[in-house]
Design goal:
about 350 residues; mainly alpha; 3-stranded mixed sheet; two-stranded antiparallel ribbon; 5 strands; Plasmid stabilization protein
Length: about 350
């Protein structure tokens, strides 16, 4: 994973050097992928002679392979998928973004279904004009926000996997809302369809975490069953074990979010019901602070140590400031805003939204 992340970071660095205002490398598609406007290229350049030769060679290889494979299997053939990825990579490289577009907008590099993807996002909301003053740079990058959302999700999953009764309440709330026709699956905190719901938080960021992995919580019960258990296997388990496994399954369906939504409101209710205090679960460490801007570090320092501390550190380099903030805020239970209770909509907000 580290080698892959290094490769993504190198691509992002090259993009910033090429003029992009922001460019980040992430292992997974951003949570906000469908919520943000996608930037259309200004045009396409003609492929170079080398690229043209490669495209001709790839197209010939695709045609040959398609003749060897049943048409129904084209989308699932590994060789065809690999050739298509190479073809798409060359075509994508021919997209042209102007210097103005790069200066205004951001690029995310991540691992998609077909390999490394580079997607340009607009920095303005869909349907709004891009002129006017540039918006202030956010305190926390999208990559950091995605990781903070993942940390919060891990804490909620841990709480549900450890509390079968609460897990049952969450499950029934989602099911009954859908059965009675007043809610939809995409509004629920838990995906009742049992998706994998993968997300990624860097291990290094979890250095000061007490959050237990849900697979370890359920390990003893899981080890008693086959990878795909039969109904007979399940019927032989005692009720308490079944409840623990139910809690594990419900916990595994909690999705990771880094933006407010209907699911976020339900997540807030679970946080309250489980009495989760994120300050007890996770504390920022040096690796986390190293990812923040100087302005954000100074804000956190002011909150934890007062404005006098900020005055003394104004002239420090960002890397040195990150070390100082880590040392000064250690044990003070100062969390990034996204993990504070005020960052989650409360029940009253949920009811007003429903009204």
């Amino acid at each position: 994973m580290d080698l892959v992340q290094d490769r993504l970071d190198a691509i992002a660095k090259a993009a910033r050097e090429d003029g992009w205002r922001d460019a980040e490398g992430q292992l997974y598609r951003p949570d906000s992928y469908w919520m943000r406007g996608h930037l259309e290229p200004a045009g396409e350049r003609d492929p170079t002679e080398e690229e043209t030769a490669q495209l001709v060679e790839i197209e010939a290889a695709i045609a040959k392979r398609e003749s060897e494979v049943d048409e129904d299997d084209h989308d699932y053939d590994d060789e065809l998928r690999a050739l298509t990825r190479k073809q798409d990579a060359i075509v994508s490289a021919c997209r042209v973004f102007t210097a103005e577009q790069k200066a205004e907008h951001s690029l995310i590099v991540f691992i998609g279904h077909d390999g490394i993807e580079q997607v340009a996002f607009t920095r303005t909301a869909k349907g709004t004009a891009a002129d006017g003053p540039k918006p202030p740079r956010p305190d926390y990058s999208q990559k950091v926000m995605d990781q903070l959302g993942g940390i919060r999700t891990m804490a909620v999953r841990e709480a549900l996997a450890s509390d079968p009764e609460l897990a049952l309440d969450v499950l029934l709330t989602g099911l009954l809302g859908q059965v009675r026709g007043n809610a939809y699956s995409w509004q629920q905190a838990a995906e009742i369809t049992a998706e994998k719901n993968r997300f990624h938080v860097d291990d290094a960021v979890m250095g000061h975490s007490t959050i237990a992995d849900i697979d370890e919580i359920a390990r003893a019960d899981l080890d008693r069953l086959a990878e795909t258990p039969t109904l007979d296997d399940m019927r032989q388990m005692d009720s308490e074990a079944k409840l623990r496994l139910l809690a594990y399954c419900v916990a595994s369906q909690i999705t990771s979010l880094s933006f407010h939504s209907d699911r976020d409101r339900q997540l807030a209710q679970i946080v309250g019901a489980a009495q989760i205090n994120m300050a007890d679960k996770w504390e920022p460490n040096q690796v986390f602070y190293d990812q923040l801007s100087k302005a954000t570090l100074l804000k956190l320092l002011a909150e934890g140590c007062g404005n006098d501390a900020v005055e003394n550190c104004q002239t420090m380099k960002r890397s040195d400031l990150a070390v100082t903030v880590n040392e000064r805020l250690a044990g003070r239970r100062i969390l990034p805003p996204a993990l504070r209770p005020s960052a989650l909509p409360d029940a009253a907000d949920s009811e007003s939204q429903a009204a």
